[in-house]
Amino acid sequence: MLLGELSGEWSLEDNHLITASAIEKFQSVVGVDNFLLDEESLFRYSLDAYRVWSSQGRFSTNNKVSAVVKPLDTQEIVKIVKIANQEKIPLIPFGSGTGVMGAINPVPGSVCVDLKRMKSILDIDPVSLTVTAQSGVILAQLDESLSKRDLMLGHDPYSLPIATVGGAISTSGVGYRAAKYGSMGDQVLGLQVVLPNGEILETRSVEKTSVGPGFQYLFIGTEGVFGFITQATLKVFRIPESRVFKTYSFDNFENGFNAMNEMFSIGLKPSLSDLTEECSDINNSNQTKGQYSTNLFLVFEGYCEEVKAQLSRVPDICSQYGGTDAGPSMSKNYWDKRHDSAYRFKDNYIKKSVDDWPIANRNRVVAYPHVALPASKVLEYRRLAEQIVLEFQVEITEYSCWTNPGLFSLMLVKTVVDWNKDVADLDIAVDKLLTLAQDLGGTMEYVHGVGSKLSHLVSRELGYGLEIMRKIKSSIDPENIINPNNLGM
Ligand SMILES: Cc1cc2nc3c(=O)[nH]c(=O)nc-3n(C[C@H](O)[C@H](O)[C@H](O)COP(=O)(O)OP(=O)(O)OC[C@H]3O[C@@H](n4cnc5c(N)ncnc54)[C@H](O)[C@@H]3O)c2cc1C
Question: How far apart are CA 86 and CA 472, in angstroms?
Answer without folding.
Answer: 21
